[in-house]
Specification:
406 residues; TIM Barrel; 8-stranded parallel barrel; two-stranded antiparallel ribbon; binds zinc ion
């Protein structure tokens, strides 16, 4: 029943966009229509986000009866790339190994369309999306000249051409109403999520070890008058100087480090500009709205959230499911300062494992954010949640949308 037919005065309403991360492999293994029905019915959301390209996947599925119980995949595209799109780059994207010959994306699109669910794709740009040991010239290279096989350097021209081609390839398929992109220099650039054995350093040391001095960075930073040899020398010297914090001294912060060395500060500013120009190219290429995943540690990631927010349709901020619900205020305020518009601000709240302890906490957080005018929220993620937690999301969505329209 519409509002006017209910006899109530017409009130301008802000629509509330509730979204859930629901990965392609979970849709396929659980049955596309069945999973979408659960996402809508049990979690109460009307949009899904799925990864279309990213790093390796290794996860346990807590939902009883879903097989395989451990889901693993190589890095790559979760669709079969159209080779014609990638003629301008020597890097050819590889489809993730779990897909084999199938391509479920069109069926997911049709099912979403039938069920009235918005479909959003996500590209995680940074992990090496091709085969691990090929294309070494496109990989990150540290100040000692050692290659990190897991990450592409976003300055390398082939990598940049790969990313723009991938955005175009995804947009050609016309399955997404919105594309979410994660783009940055990898923080610390470990090959996995963890620091390597033997490294017990500070954040500043991790950043220094993650700096890239590949041929592309050397050449282009040099053209832009960055003293790349001085920066490389400083990185090697300072990694040892700032490596070990002790009990009385937490070690030098990254901000202090950048304040103390001109060449490193120049390099940092230049790396930010590289990310910004690449983001602008991707937005220019796309035929749908592009939202960027905000960096929670911009200085580490060499990402300027404000500048990226000016270019993009909006920013997506990871937000903890805070025990102290007032903490949400600070997160929303900070992101809105970057986007200048709460309507271009989305919160992503993960609630698997120990990321959220109680349904009531989630409800209060979502309600509080909605009270500030946040109309876009994504909850993560279907394949990692037990049934009771899907119900937490349903309650959070109900109360938040009520808060929006009150
Ligand atoms: Zn590089």
């Amino acid at each position: 029943m519409s509002e006017s037919s209910a006899g109530e005065p017409h009130m301008p309403q802000t629509p509330f966009y509730a979204n859930m991360v629901c990965e392609l492999w979970d849709l396929v293994d659980g049955g596309i229509d069945d999973v979408l029905l659960r996402v809508k019915g049990e979690a109460g959301v009307n949009g899904i986000t799925l990864t279309l390209a990213g790093g390796p996947v290794d996860r346990f599925r807590p939902q009883v009866g879903v097989t395989p119980r451990m889901f693993r995949s190589t890095a790559g595209a979760h669709f079969h790339p159209n080779a014609d799109r990638y003629e301008a780059t020597r890097l050819k994207p590889v489809a993730a190994d779990w897909l084999r010959s199938r391509d479920p994306l069109p069926r997911v699109y049709e099912a979403c369309d039938r069920q009235g669910i918005r479909l959003r794709g996500r590209l995680t740009l940074g992990p090496a999306l091709g085969q691990l040991h090929r294309h070494d010239e496109s990989k990150l290279k540290n100040a000692y000249g050692e290659i990190n096989p897991a990450w592409y350097c976003p300055v390398n021209p082939d990598v940049r051409a790969l990313y723009t081609a991938m955005v175009a390839d995804v947009c050609d398929r016309q399955v997404c109403n919105k594309l979410e992109i994660m783009l940055r220099f990898p923080h610390a650039s470990w090959t996995t999520g963890e620091a390597p054995a033997g490294f017990a350093g500070t954040n500043a040391a991790a950043w220094l070890l993650g700096l890239c001095f590949c041929e592309s960075c050397r050449q282009q930073a040099g053209n832009d008058d960055v003293n790349i040899d001085a920066a490389s020398h400083a990185a090697r010297v300072l990694i040892d100087a700032v490596r070990q914090p002790d009990e009385t001294d937490p070690g030098m912060s990254l901000a202090d480090l950048l304040g103390s060395d001109d060449a490193l500060r120049q390099l940092h500013v230049w790396r930010q500009a590289q990310i910004t120009t690449l983001a602008a190219e991707l937005i220019e290429t796309a035929s749908c709205d592009i939202w960027f995943a905000r960096s929670n540690t911009p200085i580490n990631d060499n990402m300027d959230n404000r500048v990226i927010a000016d270019l993009a349709a909006g920013l997506i901020a990871r937000c903890p499911c805070a025990d102290r619900v007032e903490d949400i205020d600070a997160v929303v305020r900070r992101v809105c300062e970057e986007t200048n518009d709460v309507r271009r601000t989305e919160l992503r709240i993960d609630l698997h494992g120990d990321q959220c302890d109680e349904g009531d906490i989630l409800v209060r957080c979502a309600q509080r954010a909605a009270g500030h005018g946040v109309a876009h929220m994504t909850f993560g993620d279907f394949g990692l949640l037990t049934t009771d937690r899907l119900d937490w999301v349903r309650r959070a969505v109900r109360f938040a949308s009520r808060e929006m329209t009150s």
